[in-house]
């Protein structure tokens, strides 16, 4: 029995997703060059105004200004080209993984695949009753992989053709009338955006990036384009703040603290910009960025609008712009395990740091910041539902440490668009039972390492009841950990059986080691994201 898999087999084997990803990054890098050239034109126009007057001078300055504006208006297109090529590279990698799975099955099943992708029984091996079924299964796997690659190619080619047409016709159209109100739901925002022409959307990205970049309900690709346009301005704002501190603030501890904060934010912003420009790894999408106070950022590895599964990771105490790439790496480790466990599926992982995380222990013992974060996390998850292409993705929200309280209190007070939630290293999540979170039955998960110090985060009244005086430190810790129902700062321990959720194991890696490569908790998180615990 011989089953042809059809043309495309050899091309798929030879395809190099990394080369396509690098090509996209090169287009995106050109955006920074365009910004510099536009700045140079602005500077020359200013010099002309200082040294030249009259009608001709005015016309020249206007022309230079117009050229600069045209250059800046085209920058989103360069970012969009990167998005298209990066997403094509990701889908191509997924198709190649499916192809590899099919060929591995062929090797195990006594099935031969020739250079053209034709599948047949291997004559050197004895045929069995299951040989015909194996041939059909391998051929189906190869066919599905090739079909996925062809679909990705068609989609990318169509999007690039549309980009080329837009560039030829002037790129942006007239500004659209009306804007969503502050109380508009993400679904209403998505409907408004869908009613705009491509040229109107590009006008908004180019000329109102502050609005588009933070608007839940606007597709991820447009938000990423808008926020990348603002990176240079964020850096200039931080440098200006640093100059103000040096020039105007009196010497002393307050100025020193301000300078340290600004310098840390600058270092974090530069590290984030480097990750956004990196040609390797899953493409990063910048969905929110703010540099005030400790800084805020929402960054996705992979496009959640086009993924089958989406993880939203909410970090805890001390999280800020200064270590955004470190927190993003944690989300990336879960994503890597998802890819290893399900190589033929598309998954995205989002770092959600759009709240003021506590910096000190006394702040982390108070639930107020988690409550303040609730409306924003609720809207963000609703936005993921509203902008996703095709069938709904499986949405999982993961909270670590104080971030688990953010997730739990959001679900309790506002509702959470999620198919599952995961709590690791939790001090309590604001409820005493899983059913109070409003999640599907069996989709509340938790893990706490045996050596995680969060286990000592007991309520003050319980500490007073414990006969700790006269006992050793070890005995005190043991006393805190006993009892069938462990009460923590913000309710019952979600990893305790009495909470009513489900658990997965963690090794002894302390409070921050759930993402270590050897920790079984990493696999546990990935399996929940995939819906295969």
How would you briefly describe this protein structure?
By secondary structure, the protein is an alpha/beta fold.
Shape: globular
Residue stretches low in confidence (pLDDT < 50, at least 5 long) are 463-484
What is the mean predicted local confidence, pLDDT? 88
Strand content: 5-15%
Q: Indicate the radius of gyration in whole angstroms.
A: 27 Å
Sheet with the most strands, sense and barrel status: 8 strands, mixed
Estimate percent helicity: 40-55%
By DSSP (H or I, 4+ residues per run), the number of helices equals: 18
Q: Could you give the count of β-strands? A: 13
User: Which structural category do the helix and sheet elements fall into?
Assistant: alpha/beta
Biggest sheet: strand arrangement? 4-5-7-6-8-9-10-13
Measured between the Cα atoms of the first and last residue, the distance is 38 Å
What features would you describe in this structure?
The chain has 533 residues and is α/β, with parallel strands linked by helices. Helix content is 54%, strand content 11%. It is built from 18 helices and 13 strands. The chain has an eight-stranded mixed β-sheet with strand order 4-5-7-6-8-9-10-13, sandwiched between helices. A three-stranded antiparallel β-sheet has the order 1-3-2. β8, α15 and β9 form a beta-alpha-beta unit. α2 runs antiparallel to α3, α7 packs parallel to α9 and α14 crosses α15. It starts with a strand and ends with a helix. The relative contact order is 0.07.
